[in-house]
Here is the input.
Amino acid sequence: MTGHATMPEADIEGARYQADTPQAAPGFFLKGSHQLDWGMKNRLARTFNPQSGRTVMLAVDHGYFQGPTTGLERIDLAIVPLIPYCDALFCTRGILRSVIPAESQKPMVLRASGGPSILKELSDEQIAMDMEDAVRLNAAGVGIQVFVGGEFETRSIHNMTKLIDAGLRVGMPVMGVTAVGTNMVRDARYFRLACRMIAELGAQYVKTYFVDDGFETVTSSCPVPIVMAGGKKLPELDALTMAYNAVQQGAAGVDMGRNIFQSDAPSAMIQAVHAVVHKNMKPKDALDMFETLKHQR
Ligand code: R5P
Here is the structure.
């Protein structure tokens, strides 16, 4: 048989090429991420919902410097049941390997800095895991503290840039976290500075705190997505209002911990936060949802 005899008829072959339909050249749904490589984008698209452009990350990494934090004493019992309701989990590699089921389909973002305990100067951090291990663990990203204005500011910046260089080699997004010293002013001016520095130095997204005045200037002056950290435990309505205001003012979601796992109904709370973030549910409606789900337990 000749090669010619196996070819399809010319008119049918032509139809298969659909030459009159140009290949689409789509952009990418996340701010500032459209020129990243495929692996990096794919990891971001697992962490952030491509439909809403937002994420509900559940932060449970607190033990890396403060041990068994209230609500995280038994991650197997308290946190594993919440995993279905988050878009991504932010945890340490120790908890991932020892407690989080490997069957989980959720993206895992890993805490990659550490060193000092709560008993010492917190800005005295180092990179605390190899990028090779993040790849081995099939992580969707890594997170690192940056202490702008802190005692070890320069080192924490260098930690981040080294991690970013390692991440770029393998397509691993780095989340830079604005860590604020206890005696520093938490205002929009400070967070504009810290978030912009983190983005300019190459982080693919930034985690920072909400401020009542001018948060929209923090998000608008940061060229990559911002996720809001929750901070200390608030009454549920206040936490839902903060999450609502953050996403309405340009945040690409939240990375909340204590306001979820220290709630007296964590499962109800994370579902209410999810509705606020992905469906723009108003805070009072989200509180109603929280109360309803809480009483269904
Ligand atoms: C902060 O150091 C921790 O790494 C947490 O990931 C972060 O603070 C978010 O958790 P929370 O909402 O409890 O502040």
